[in-house]
Amino acid sequence: MLVDVIPIVDEVKNENLYKKTVIIVDILRTSSTIITALANGIEWIIPAETIGQVKTIKNIETSALLAGDRFSKKIQEFDLGNSPLEYTSLPLKNKKIILTTTNGTRAIQKAGKGEYIFIGGFLNGASCIQKALKLKRDIVILCVGNRNEFALEDGLAAGFLIDTLMKNSDQAYEINDFGKAVYGMYKYYEDKLTDILKTTETAKRLTQLGFGDDIHFSSQINYYSVCPKYDPSKNMIKPSSD
């Protein structure tokens, strides 16, 4: 089994994904928001790259809530933003969401050539890796990044996923060089994860905007057992039932 970590979404190519299990990582905050939303009762999420796509989908899915952000700020007139904590405090059971974010939802759609596509992070790493290992495919961990640059928080989460895989796999595996680097980085910071996440560029911006609590929340290890799965044929994310 090959395990490849890709540092930013713009580096991914279709041939990197074909017949592979893809795990999308966007810790601050799309991955964490999707995991939290589904864990708290949301029935499904449709990812949209643009606000225009959101409005088109809304014409069909008229009962769906609109959610998302641009550069960490809630989009005006939308029902919800992209803070995972929003989805822990509202009655959202069986609700449906159309979600657009600055980088994360674009990455989800771009990963559509993968055979299986999961959304992972610190919040659900054990469940996500368990699902991936069961499928016995090569694994691609796609770090979304921040404004076309590598995001430290995504790299640390990729390292955490590799660490979880190494502790739970009875299969032979080979990790690419970048994967080895982020694994080493995660092990170095493992005991001070929240502290190092607070120093990242994304976290600094979130703190300035009043979303500092999202950083601590998103760094919790295996807080949820849900593993979101993206079905590109339906352009829909639901909890994996595999």
What CATH calls the topology is putative 2-phosphosulfolactate phosphatase
What's the Cα radius of gyration? 16 Å
Strand content: 15-25%
Number of DSSP helical runs: 10
CATH class value: Alpha Beta
GO molecular function, one term: magnesium ion binding
Enzyme class: hydrolase
Keywords: Hydrolase, Magnesium
Protein name: Probable 2-phosphosulfolactate phosphatase
Describe the structure.
- The two termini are 20 Å apart.
- A hairpin with a 2-residue loop joins strand 4 and strand 5.
- The chain has one domain: putative 2-phosphosulfolactate phosphatase (Alpha-Beta Complex).
- It has 10 helices and 11 strands.
- With 242 residues, it is of the alpha/beta class.
- The mean pLDDT is 96.
- Helix 5 packs across helix 6, helix 6 packs across helix 7 and helix 9 packs across helix 10.
Architecture blueprint of SSEs:
Elements: E1 2-6, H1 14-17, E2 21-25, H2 30-39, E3 44-47, H3 51-60, E4 65-70, E5 73-74, E6 96-100, H4 104-110, E7 116-120, H5 125-135, E8 139-143, H6 152-168, E9 174-175, H7 177-189, H8 193-197, H9 201-208, H10 212-218, E10 228-231, E11 236-239
Parallel strand pairs: 1-8, 1-9, 2-7, 2-8, 3-6, 4-6
Antiparallel strand pairs: 4-5, 10-11
Helix pairs in contact: 5-6, 6-7, 9-10
